[in-house]
Amino acid sequence: MGKGNVLVVDDSPLVLDVISKFLSANGFEVLTAGDGIEAIEKAFRELPDLIVLDVMMPRMNGYQVCRLLKSDHETCDIPIIMLTVKDQASDKYWGIQTGADAYLSKEFEQTTLLKTIETLIQKRRKRHVAKSLIRGTSLISAVDIVSKVNEQLDKKLFEATVLNEMSSLVEKRIEDFKETVNVVMETMAKVLAYEVGVIVTIKEHDVECFFVIRRFVSEQCLKEIQEYTKNYLKANNICLSPAPVMEVFSSDKIKQADYTEEQKIAYFTVPIHCANNLGGLVILAHDVSEVIDSKEEEFFKIVVRQAYVIVENSWLYNKVKKLAITDSLTGIYNHGFLYECLCKEYARVERYKLPLSFLMIDVDYFKSINDTYGHPQGDMVLYKLSQIFKNNIRVSDTLGRYGGEEFSIVLPESKLEDSVNLAERIRREVEQYNFGDANKAIRCTVSIGVSSYPDPGVRSLEDLISRADKSLYNAKTEGRNRVCII
Description:
Elements: E1 5-9, H1 13-25, E2 29-33, H2 36-46, E3 50-54, H3 62-71, E4 80-84, H4 89-97, E5 102-105, H5 110-126, H6 142-168, H7 177-189, E6 196-203, E7 206-213, E8 217-218, H8 219-235, E9 245-249, E10 254-255, E11 265-274, E12 277-287, H9 297-325, H10 335-352, E13 356-363, H11 366-373, H12 375-392, E14 398-403, E15 406-412, H13 416-432, E16 446-453, H14 461-477, E17 483-485
Parallel strand pairs: 1-2, 1-3, 3-4, 4-5, 7-9, 8-10, 16-17
Antiparallel strand pairs: 6-7, 6-12, 11-12, 13-15, 13-16, 14-15
Helix pairs in contact: 2-3, 6-9, 7-9, 11-12, 12-13
């Protein structure tokens, strides 16, 4: 057995002669071709151990030849060395992108070419690549080759179009995470059919799962998909909290619980790795009848990973934004965002002559709670208070931590009387609430100051804040655990 047979392709008879004699002298059997069409014909017929391929040739250039051979299952394992006078970085990049195993300038030293050929052939033989029987020349013709090239061009154009459309989504607004997810998943649905898409974001111990229902599915089916997701994460050592984030988008597409028709689901699972660990996950749950073409699987994975990057960027943006505007202890808005919201609301109501109310709330004798029960228990009291406030306000209202043990609520389009009633309801609920447990009751009360616009004493935003603050001071001096206005 010789060292192997090498197909040398170049439109220069001189180059063909020089390389052929050199390789023959070093124990290789040599085949030659003078252009791209002839190269493909001989590659399919002879199935050489390696191809030395010129880039600039008539009828079909080396890049096209390389891409075609690397895309066919009969020839994809044949190592290809691209050989060219072009030595720019972009040319090398494109050569490797088309599937070439090595890229050499024609100014190479003969020993470099010889060593590269021997290395690539040895690697191929170690993989135990099975060699097909030699085919007859009738098996592939120039017409077949052109047809294959056109097929490849169509495929690459399709792939480029899909990826370009996906990439263009990055340029759109990412502030609305839910909208970003919906747009990305709808774009992906143009390529891959699925019933439910699952996106899992993983950042250290912060794991969130989002389920996008594209077609109607039963409640039981959704539960099975959620269970599959949990099991996959568990198998990859990703620990979920006892109450993990499992947000469902398009929940109106869940069929009624009494829906009994059995739906068999298959899964196209694409893990997103980061430093050899699972850094994210996309699952496309689809009907078993919708088979995913195995030949296109790698391309589909590229599309899915691109989709994940877009969604993750939006998720991270919103995470950072939320951290910047929320209070870390209570999870409600911080003082800066609260003030910004109040400024916007005051400007709006002043322009349209609408009512606006502002509540300032202070925890009575909070220092004694910290001194008696400890600061961790005091923090728990503040957190539970924020939940009481949140449960009593409207979606349009804005709750924030003003500082320390003080809270504020912005109440758009709320008249003074309605705001006082809300404040009184909050005061009573806090007074009756046990902030401890069955073994240790912890009680506290709050004082609340209320201001409102329009009011003769409110001519500016500063007046609105100042009157609420003075009202709160009066509630304190009058005995606490009360609601005051001035």
